[in-house]
Structure formats: C-alpha cells, structure tokens
Amino acid sequence: MNAFHTLLILLAAFFAVFLQAATTALPRLLGAQVDLLPALMVYAALTAGPGTLALVALCGGLWFDSLSANPLGLSVLPLALIGWLVARRRELLLRQQWFAQLVLGLAASAGAPLLGVLLLLSAGREPLLGWGSLWQWTVMTLLGGVATPLLFQWFGWLTRTFGYAEVARPGFRPDREIRRGRT
Amino acid sequence: MLKKTRYLALAVVALAALVLLNLPAGTAARLRLAVSSQFLPLFGLARVTQDAAGAGADQLVLSKRELIRQNEQLRRENAELRLLAVQATNLFTENARLTQLTGWQRQQPWRLKLGRVVLRDPANWWRTVQIDLGSQHGVRADMPVLTNDGLVGRVAAVGQFRSQVVLIGDPACRVAARVRNEAGDTGVVGAGSPLDRELVTLGYLAKNAAVKPGQVVVTSGQGGVFPGGIPVGTVVDTQPVEHGLHLEARVQLAARLGALDEVWVLMEWTR
Fold first, then answer.
1. Which CATH architecture has domain B111-167+259-268?
2. CA dist B134 to B23, B130, B210, B265, B267, Å?
3. Closest approach of chain A CAs to the CA of B43, in angstroms?
4. Which pLDDT value is given to residue A91?
5. How far apart are CA B48 and CA B37, in angstroms?
6. A88-A68-B232 Cα angle (round to 5)
7. Domain residue spans in chain A?
8. What number does CATH give the domain B175-257?
9. Is B160 a residue whose pLDDT tops 90?
10. Does the beta carbon of B126 lie under 8 angstroms from any beta carbon of chain A?
C-alpha cells in the first residue's frame, strides 16, 4: 500500500462525513442518519497500516465532531478502538470474503454509536435518547454493515484505476550476468 | 514490530482525543470552527444538490394543471396579504401614536435576516443545523431562529460565515412557553423524541393546568432569549408525571424541522 491509498481513505472519510450532514432524504425516510465511518475504519484496518488507521480515526472523528454538537474529539476514541481491534486480528480474518466484511461492518457500525453514547453519558452530557434510538441504532448497524463490502468493492476499483502498482524487481542483475563466449 | 507500532498508534490517537476533550471551551470552539471550515467549499455544493433534488422531486410529482392551480392560489393569497399589509401599516401608525401619547415603551419592529440551512447534525442524538450566516452578517450566539410557521431554535455557535443553530427539541434548547388558554398556563419546552423531529414535550405545567389537545403554545418571553408570542406548536395530549406533581404535554411543532430549508434569524427585538 502507498500514500495514494492513505489519501484515498482520508478523502473518503471527509466526503462520508459531508454526505451524512448534507443528505436529507435518507434520514427523513428512515428516521436515522447513517454513519459510514465505522465501515471505513474496518476497511482501513484490513488493508492499511497503523499510521493510516490512526490518521483516519483522528481526522474522521474530528470532521464528524466539528459538524455535530458532540464534544470535539469524542468520536475519535470509538473509531480508533474499532480500527485497533480489527487490525489486531487481521491475519486471522478472511478479509477478501464479503461475508467476513459484512459481519465486521455490522459489528463496527453497532459498536461505534454505543461507545459514543457511553462516552457522552460519562462526560455528563444529555444526548437525545429514547425508544426510537433503538430503531436508529438498528438502521445504522444494518446499513453500515451492508456498506462495508460495497466500500471494499469501490476502493478495489479506485485503486486499480488510479493507483500505481509497485514495480516488481526482476531476478536479473547485470553485474551477476554470466557472459559466455568470446569477449 | 507491527504489533508494537499498532499499540503505539492507538496510544497516540487516544492521547490526542483526551487532550482534545479536555481543551478549554474557548479553544475547543475555535478549533471546531477551524476544522469545520474545511467543509466551506462544499457548502455551495450541498445547496446545489438539495435544490436539484427538490426540483427533480417537484417535476416528478406535480402536473401542469396542479402548478396552474397552485399559482392561482398563491396569487389570491398574495392579494389578500397585500391588503393585510396596508391594514397593518395603519394599525402600526395608530399604535405608535397611542404609545407615544400614553408613554408606554415603544416596541421595536423585528429585524430579521434570512439564512439557508446548509448542513445537518450527522449524529442521531443531537438536533442542530448549520446555516450560511455568521458573525460577518451580524449574527451572535443565542439569537432566536424561526420560520414563517413558528420557532425553530437559537444560535448556539457563530463562525465568520456560518452558524450552528440548536433546534427546539434538542436537550440543549429549552424554551419558556405559554399555552394560549384562559389560564395562560406556562411551562418549559424540553427534549423531543429521537424519531419524530416535530414532537416535543412541554413540561413543568401546574398539576391543575387547563391544558387541552388543540390549544396553541407560544413563547412566553420569560428568560430573555426568545421574544414572547412566537408560535411553538399545538398540544397533542397531556399526562401527569412525577407521581402527579406536574403535568406534561406533547406538542406538535408548528415549524417543520425535518424539512428546514430557509430560516429567519431574529437580529433585533425589544426585550
């Protein structure tokens, strides 16, 4: 993976936050905002290094909180924790399988709002909660889960189209060439 | 090695988050504005997208006949409103003359500024929006925000070109309100429902309050943030709370908070 990949994930996080704040049709239809950052963290955790992961959690969380009434920095912690938990076991995960991506996306999208609300409550804030919040949590979990394999597909296409592959080093070295015949 | 780097990255992010969460309020507000200003170039895009979506939906839904009917209706309403405006001007002049004669404090007419909603809170547990008016346009914190239908909320934070408005129904926006009935019962409009943006609770009503479904709720003017008489909504139902110590009413808001597009910021009014 290269800097282009990191930039791509950061750009996706930026536009995901903007779209969440700008779209009105889906929240009006479903009664809930959809959060794509946890799904993006799953993708980053499975495909990028710890530096990228930290950057996405920090920038994504800050962008989200800057447009929200959340205390600044609150969303960073749940995102970082999700990313770290997935990255810890990434060698054992079948990351190319859409089912594994879906399950991880579901878990991440369910965990992030819960952790966020817990942090808010422990900070003494009064978020707007009620029985309707259960519906919102279910919508966020399901749509976040479904979005995760789609994100993998989309990033795969983007990387193939705009990214560059590292040049594979051939085994041939001119200084080790065995020259035969007369010189 | 990679494991160590992962732990290190998590520790750095956690430390950064803790520092951010413990910043002084002023510094945090300035940093929030600085971070959110990165979205400024996209604010116009959001407006264009919303306009396009709105125009597309209208074209899909409305027929030509319906448009002609609506146009005719608007013409009629416009004519009626012009007549009312003439009457209002006469009444205003008469009121001003009588106020001067009796020595009452003269009421300043409201000075309003039209703003456009550009972004909504991305979190499900807050009710805030961003509007395209900021300190450059004279907006200050705690200014009331309304639509033609009724109260919307108040300005919570102000940037140079945009402001954050906390909507009625958010736990951070409490409004002193009065029910338009014979007793003039007063209460406080508090948090709403997470799903229904247009339903809020009117709490702290006296246990013997004569509040009934269908009665209109307006701002009481107490507290100094909102002027009195702005429509808030209509009472849906009432129920006793806290073992019958108080009465609580559910109020259907007059302003359609789920479909906010343009809002008025009340810049000046007589307190």
1. Beta Barrel (2.40)
2. 24, 10, 42, 11, 12
3. 9
4. 81
5. 18
6. 145
7. 3-165
8. 2.40.10.350
9. no
10. yes
Q: CB contact, 8 Å: B256 with chain A?
A: no
Cα–Cα distance measured from residue B155 to residue A127, given in angstroms and rounded to the nearest whole number: 18
Distance from CA of B154 to the nearest CA of A (A): 14
C-alpha B56, offset from chain centre = 27
Tell me, what's the ipTM? 0.81
Chain B residues closer than 8 Å to A69 by CB: 121, 123, 126, 128, 156, 164, 166, 170, 172
Residue among A25, A72, A80 minimizing CB distance to B31: A72
Tens of pLDDT along B217-235? Answer: 999 988 888 988 899 999 9
pLDDT at B92 over 90: no
Sign of CA dihedral B268, B160, A63, B46: positive
Distance in Å, alpha carbon of B111 to nearest chain A alpha carbon: 28
Tokens of A61: 């969380």
What whole-number distance in Å separates Cα of residue A155 and Cα of residue A49? 16
Following DSSP, what letter does each residue of B118-161 receive, concatenated? EEE-SSTT--EEEES--GGGT--TT-EEE-SSSEEEEEEEE-SS
From chain A, the residues in CB contact with B195 under 8 A are 31, 130, 132, 135-136
Chain-centroid distance of CA A96 in Å reads 15
Backbone angles phi, psi at A71, to 5 degrees: -60, 140
Least Cα distance to A98 among A49, A47, A153, A142 occurs for A153
Cα–Cα distance, A105 to A114 (Å, whole number): 14
Interface test with A, best of B13, B22, B155 (most A CBs within 10 A): B13
Alpha-carbon distance B124 to A35, whole Å?
A: 9
Instruction: Determine which of A36-45, A78-87, B86-95, B164-173 has the lowest per-residue pLDDT on average.
Output: B86-95
Per-residue pLDDT band for A29 (boundaries 50, 70, 90) equals: confident
Out of B20, B38, B259, whose CB is closest to A72? B20
Is the Cβ pair B125, A72 closer than 8 Å?
Answer: no
pTM of the model: 0.82
Distance CA B53, CA A21 (A): 15
Q: Which two tokens stand for residue B225?
A: 């943030």
